[in-house]
């Protein structure tokens, strides 16, 4: 779980949902696709703070979602179920004009949210994501069979440590005031995941790229491979070394993740108002 940003006065509404890091993004239409990033359970937008720098010219902007209960939204109540959360995120994306020439990335719970928000936008007649990247997440129909949100605080801290949420060398945080402060947010996010029930609907029509880690106790390779039927376009599955939080660790797995994202985003044709996501047999294996 990422350290919380300092608590200050409530930010403007636009910055509440999608806080800005670094320099302003390029003007619309002058660069590549916008990547909208969704956090994992208990996570904050700050995990994606440096992604625009790493992704380079293939991406116009990285818009990282900040959910209530953390960072500058610390005083807000976190969501406890998926349906209102998905609806509110879709509302905000439309309101801020972020649903043109965009792709989604989500890790763990974030992958589930990205998929559901993509479906919700399609139901509203909005343009869908041009690519969906899912990482460290079981396919949606595999959710709803876990009960970590019901664990006592001590056992929930142990669970967080066991899946790599604290990172190497951070075991002292297990007993810190910081982690105690974050447990309610983690518990609420896990309730969102564990209370979720997938409902059948047609696949998304954008290409999908999935990432699974070799030592992930939450989503193994077969769980991630199960995303394949969720797109009618191409599906690519990358297997990397690491645990559930390989994307936050400095190492080869994170570097490969960013390299693959950069490459896929750079290969997207410029948006022209006509469908561009045609299935390419060579991408699917």
Automatic annotation (TrEMBL):
Entry keyword set: Hydrolase
Coiled coil (UniProt feature): none
Pfam family, one: Thioesterase
Keyword Hydrolase: yes
Domain of life of the organism encoding this protein: Bacteria
Stretches assigned to the Thioesterase TesA-like domain: 36-261
Family assignment from sequence similarity: Belongs to the thioesterase family.
Name the UniProt record assigns to this protein: Thioesterase domain-containing protein
């Amino acid at each position: 779980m990422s350290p919380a940003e300092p608590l200050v006065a409530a930010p403007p509404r636009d910055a509440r949902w999608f806080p800005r890091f670094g320099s302003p993004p390029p003007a619309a239409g002058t660069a590549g696709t916008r990547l909208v990033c969704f956090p994992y359970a208990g996570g904050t937008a700050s995990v994606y703070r440096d992604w625009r720098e790493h992704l380079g010219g293939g991406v116009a902007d990285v818009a990282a979602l900040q959910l209530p209960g953390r960072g500058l939204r610390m005083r807000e109540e976190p969501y406890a179920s998926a349906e209102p959360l998905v609806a509110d995120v879709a509302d905000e994306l439309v309101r801020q004009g972020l649903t043109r020439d965009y792709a989604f990335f989500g890790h763990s719970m974030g992958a589930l949210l990205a998929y559901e928000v993509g479906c919700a936008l399609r139901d509203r007649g909005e343009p869908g994501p041009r690519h969906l990247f899912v990482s460290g997440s079981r396919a949606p129909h595999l959710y709803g069979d876990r009960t970590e949100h019901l664990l006592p605080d001590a056992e929930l801290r142990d669970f967080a440590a066991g899946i790599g949420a604290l990172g190497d060398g951070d075991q002292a945080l297990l007993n810190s005031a910081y982690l105690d402060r974050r447990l309610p947010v983690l518990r609420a996010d896990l309730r969102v995941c564990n209370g979720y029930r997938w409902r059948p609907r047609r696949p998304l029509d954008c290409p999908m790229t999935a990432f699974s880690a070799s030592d992930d106790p939450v989503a193994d390779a077969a769980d991630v491979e199960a995303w394949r039927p969720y797109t009618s376009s191409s599906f690519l599955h990358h297997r990397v070394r690491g645990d559930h939080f390989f994307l936050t660790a400095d190492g080869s797995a994170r570097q490969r993740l960013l390299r693959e994202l950069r490459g896929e985003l750079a290969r997207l044709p410029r948006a022209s108002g006509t469908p561009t996501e045609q299935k390419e047999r060579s991408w699917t294996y």
